[in-house]
Write a structure and sequence with these properties.
globular; mainly beta; 341 residues; Neuraminidase
Length: 341
Amino acid sequence: MRLSTRTLLSTAVLAVLLAACQGDADAPVATDDAAAVAPAGDDNVADPVAQAFACPADPGTAPSGELTATRIPAADGDGAGGLYEGPVWTGGALYFSDFRFSEGFPSRIRRLTADGVLETAIDPGGSNGLALGRDGALVAATHDRKELSRYDLVDGSRMRIVGEYEGLPFNSPNDLVVSADGTIWFTDPDFQRGDAQGQEKTRVYRVGTDGTVSVVDDTIANPNGIALSPTGDVLYVAGGGEEGVLRAYPLVDGQAQAGRDLTSTTVPDGLAVDCLGNIYLTEHTRRRVRVVSPEGQDVALITVDANITNATFGGPQRRTLYLTGAGSVWSLDLDVTGLPY
């Protein structure tokens, strides 16, 4: 199902969207050749999105069996009062959203440096899921303004990308991913909607580089985690609550085709992907990550000691798996390179 409407973006805002999420037309794409130009872990490459989706010729070996991630003490917070969400690795640090369960779900963006120092990067942030624009800015799914926003990490400024569909605000944008050409894919459940006006359904959306918003899928109750395959030709979405599903959508000419269910899941949350194509499916209340092959087979299980929300790869070679959850950040060193959001 693919319904379209043109967003009310001014020329200036659309230009920022293209600059932040698409970059120059000649910008490199994540292919094997791009990997040679932008090796994993090189944070000095001019195009962060190309670097983010560049995988080395030898990505390593997938995890197997049962593993346990370790808490990072510097990031310990109040797990009863809120959640950490939306981790992104950029500039040699882990950025993530830190939001509270109080009225309005106030949120700030935190930065955990490689040497274990926790800082506040942007406050207020209002964000949940985070992604990376080609100019190095963060692109965020935000529940405070029910929109996608761009945050400049240098001065903390914020600009709206898109905030409505068919004249109504979104419910509570949750997670997002940016294709190499600047297309944004995001989920819009109703977790932080409250009593505010919003959409009649929870959906998965596509935002084209011309500002057009279209519906990818409206059949998943409260879609949550979203990710792309390493080559950018498959979109993954997890959602559905207690009787959840991980669904894969082939992408043809930048458009999502009919989805195929890879596996069932319980209370799925965020996703990560390694350079072998495996999907790291977090299951919120089960406090675990299922590592699932592109064919839907379970290959490994990673456990944590609190409710979990999301996952990403970081570190010098992007071989450290970072997990966020109830006032906690965990890490686990692996033998495979992954994508940083």
